[in-house]
C-alpha cells in the first residue's frame, strides 16, 4: 500500500506489520511520551519533561531515532522533542528510548506543522532536519519541508540566536534549502569555510539514511543557519 498523504511533507505512514513487542510499546510508551496538542503548551515549555532541563532541541523527522536517542543520552539536561509520522520509525525509536531509560524525550507522531504551530514563540534552542524526504521529482518539490511557510513557523518557534541544522545528500535539496533559508529574513547561514558544511556537527553519531547515502556513493552536506 502506498500510504502517501496528499499535501503532506512525508510519504508513507506505515511499513511492515509491527511485532507484538513493538505494538505494545506503541500502545503504552508512546502515549506517555507524546505531546498533547489538544492542551495548551506549558509555560515554560521545559515543563513537558519530568526533570529539569536547561534548553530544548527539536528534531523533525527522526527516522529510526538514532540521532535523537544519541543526543538525548549525551545531554540529559536538554529536553528533546522528536517528530516522526512513520509508524515503524517511531516503533524503533521507542525501543531505543526504553532500553536507554531516557526521560528527556517527548514525541509527536504526526506532521510537524501541527507541533510547530502549537509551540510557544521563542521556545526552542536548536532544530534539526536530517536527511528529509527530498521529493526529487519537480512536480513534488512543493512537498519539500523547507519552504517559506514552514520557515516562518520555525522562525517563530526558535529563540533569537538559535540554530536550525539541516543535512542531506541530495544536491538539489541542499541548493533548494540554501536558496530558501538565505532568502528568509529571520535566518543567516553561519558557514565561514567549506568544512563548515562538508563536515558533520560535533558529536555526530550518523544516521541510517546517511549510511545508505555513503554506501551508494553520495556524501552528506551539513548546513547550519542562525535565527536572528
TrEMBL record:
InterPro entries found in the cross-reference section: SAM-dependent_MTases_sf, tRNA_(Gua-N-7)_MeTrfase_Trmb, tRNA_methyltr_TrmB_bact
Pfam families: Methyltransf_4
GO cellular component: tRNA methyltransferase complex
Keyword terms: Methyltransferase, S-adenosyl-L-methionine, Transferase, tRNA processing
EC number: 2.1.1.33
The protein's annotated pathway: tRNA modification; N(7)-methylguanine-tRNA biosynthesis
Highest taxon of the lineage: Bacteria
Catalytic activity: guanosine(46) in tRNA + S-adenosyl-L-methionine = N(7)-methylguanosine(46) in tRNA + S-adenosyl-L-homocysteine
Binding site for S-adenosyl-L-methionine: 59, 84, 111, 133
Residues that, per the record, bind substrate: 137, 169, 207-210
A GO molecular-function descriptor: tRNA (guanine(46)-N7)-methyltransferase activity
Leading EC class: transferase
Record-linked PROSITE patterns: SAM_MT_TRMB (PS51625)
Family membership: Belongs to the class I-like SAM-binding methyltransferase superfamily. TrmB family.
Protein function: Catalyzes the formation of N(7)-methylguanine at position 46 (m7G46) in tRNA.
UniProt protein name: tRNA (guanine-N(7)-)-methyltransferase
Amino acid at each position: 500500500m502506498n500510504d502517501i498523504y496528499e499535501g503532506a511533507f512525508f510519504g508513507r505512514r506505515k511499513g511492515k506489520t509491527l511485532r507484538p513487542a513493538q505494538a505494545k510499546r506503541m500502545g503504552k510508551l508512546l502515549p506517555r511520551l507524546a505531546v498533547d496538542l489538544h492542551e495548551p503548551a506549558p509555560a515554560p515549555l521545559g515543563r513537558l519533561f519530568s526533570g529539569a532541563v536547561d534548553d530544548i532541541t527539536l528534531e523533525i523527522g527522526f527516522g529510526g531515532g538514532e540521532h535523537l536517542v544519541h543526543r538525548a543520552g549525551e545531554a540529559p539536561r536538554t529536553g528533546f522533542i522528536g517528530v516522526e509520522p512513520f509508524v515503524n520509525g517511531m516503533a524503533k525509536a521507542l525501543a531505543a528510548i526504553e532500553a536507554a531509560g531516557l526521560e528527556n524525550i517527548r514525541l509527536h507522531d504526526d506532521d510537524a506543522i501541527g507541533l510547530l504551530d502549537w509551540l510557544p514563540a521563542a521556545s526552542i534552542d536548536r532544530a534539526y532536519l536530517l536527511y528529509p524526504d527530498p521529493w526529487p521529482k519537480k512536480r513534488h518539490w512543493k512537498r519539500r519541508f523547507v519552504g517559506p511557510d514552514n520557515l516562518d513557523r520555525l522562525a517563530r518557534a526558535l529563540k533569537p540566536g538559535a540554530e536550525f541544522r539541516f543535512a542531506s545528500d541530495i544536491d538539489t535539496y541542499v541548493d533548494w534549502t540554501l536558496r530558501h533559508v538565505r532568502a528568509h529574513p529571520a535566518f543567516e547561514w553561519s558557514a565561514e569555510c567549506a568544512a563548515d558544511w562538508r563536515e558533520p556537527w560535533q558529536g555526530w553519531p550518523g544516521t541510517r539514511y546517511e549510511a545508505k547515502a555513503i554506501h551508494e556513493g553520495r556524501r552528506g552536506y551539513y548546513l547550519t543557519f542562525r535565527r536572528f
